[in-house]
Amino acid sequence: METTNKPLEKLNIFSFKGVQMRTFHLTWMAFFLCFFGWFGLAPLMTVIKTDLGLTKSQIGNIIIASVAATVVARILIGKLCDTWGPRKTYAALMGICSIPVMTVGLVHSYEGFLLFRLAIGVIGASFVITQYHTSVMFDKKIVGTANAVAGGWGNLGGGITNMVMPLIFAGVVGLGYLPASAWRIAMVIPGVMLLIFAFVYYRFTKDTPAGNFEELAISNPKAVKTKGSLLEAMKDPRTWALFLAYGACFGIEITFDNVAALYFFENFNTTLATAGILAGAFGFMNIFARAVGGIVADKVGNKYGMIGKGRLLALLLALEGIGIALFAQSGSIAVAVITMLSFAMFLKMANGVTYAIVPFINRKAIGSVSGIVGAGGNVGAVLAGFLFKSSSISYSQAFIYIGVAIACIAAVVALINFDKTRSVVPETGALETAEA
C-alpha cells in the first residue's frame, strides 16, 4: 500500500516502501544495467580488434560513435518523458536497445560493427529518464541529493562493467569457445538482463507519485499537457549554461574513462594491471562523490537559493579545470594520482550539482531540460575525443586545453542568473516538487 501520493521530503536509501522509493531504486538499477549494455564492448575491444582487423583510426571512430548517438537520443528521450511518461519510455528504451546489444555478435565487418555501436549508444539516453523520474518523486528540498545518488550509483555500472565483462568472456572461453566467438556470446547476457528489466520497470513503477500520466490525464487533462516544452526549454539561457557545464564535467568524465589507463601506462611506465587499477579508482569515486555534490547543492540551495547553487557549480568547474591542468603537468605518478583524485572529486560533485539545478529550470519541461543538458555531456565527450584522436597533440597537451576550456565555461556559468523563473507550475501536486 502506498503511504502518500506526494513527493518525498526525505531520502532513505534502505527503504523500498512506497512508489517513490521503489522507483528510486529501480531507476538507478535500470541505469546501472544500461551502462552494462552501453559499455559492455569496451573491455573486450582488444579481442574484437583482432577478430575484425580494426585499425587505430577505426577504433577511434567506434569510440566517438558510441557517445555521439546519445546526443540526439537524450534530447528525444527527454521530450518523450514529458509527453509519454518516464515509465513507458524507460521500458521501451531498454526493450528496444536490448536487441542490438544481444545481436552485435552477428557482425563480421568494421562497417557493421560501427552501425551496431551507434545503435547501442542510444541506450545512453537512459540517464535522462533516471534524472527525470527521481526529480518528480522527491521534494525540492531533497531532489538534488536523490538525483545525484541515483545518477552516481548508475554510473558505477560503467566501472563494474570493465571488471565483469572480461570475467563473463573468460567463462565462455572456459566452456570451450574460441575468443572470436566468446565476445559475441558474452554480449547476449547484458542484452537479456535489459530485456527482463524492461518488464520489471514497466510493472513496478509509476510516472509520478500520484499515478501514471494516462490516469492523471483522465482526472485532470491539463495536468500533463506539455506541448511545446522542448521549445520552451531551448529558449531558456539557463538550459544552455547547464548544457556547457555538463559537457565540462560529465563529458570529460567519459573521456577520461577512455584514456586514463593508456595515459598512465605510456607516461609513467606502469604495468597494464596497475594502469587499470588507477583508472578504475577514478570511476569508482562515483559511489560517493556525485552524491556529495547533490547533498551540498541542496544545502546551499535551501540557504542561498538558486543563485547559490549556480555559484557552487561555477566554483567546482573552476577547481576541476585547474586540477586537470595540474594533472597534465604531473612529473611523478604520485602527484598524478593525487591531482587525479582531486579533480575527480570536483568533476563528479559538479555532475551532481548540475542535476540539482535541472529540475528548477522549467517545471513543465523537466524531461526536455534534462535531455538537452544530458546531451551536453556527450557533446563534450565527442569534442574531447577528437582532441585525443589528433596525432599532432599529446595527451598532456590535450588535458591542458581541456582545463582551460573548463575554466572558461566556469566563468560563463558564474554570470548566469539561475534564480529567474519562466515556467508555470503544473496543476497536479505530484509534479510540484521543485518550483523555484
TrEMBL record:
Record's protein name: Nitrate/nitrite transporter
UniProt record, GO biological process: nitrate assimilation
Membrane-crossing segments per the record: 26-47, 59-77, 89-108, 114-132, 153-177, 183-202, 240-265, 271-289, 310-328, 334-358, 365-386, 398-418
NCBIfam families: 2A0108
Keywords of the record: Cell membrane, Membrane, Nitrate assimilation, Transmembrane, Transmembrane helix, Transport
Similarity comment: Belongs to the major facilitator superfamily. Nitrate/nitrite porter (TC 2.A.1.8) family.
Source organism of the structure: Dyadobacter pollutisoli
PANTHER family: HIGH-AFFINITY NITRATE TRANSPORTER 2.3
A cellular component annotation (GO) from this entry: plasma membrane
Domain spans labelled Major facilitator superfamily (MFS) profile: 23-422
Membrane topology qualifier: Multi-pass membrane protein
GO molecular function: nitrate transmembrane transporter activity; nitrite transmembrane transporter activity
Xref: PROSITE patterns: MFS
Cellular localization per UniProt: Cell membrane; Membrane
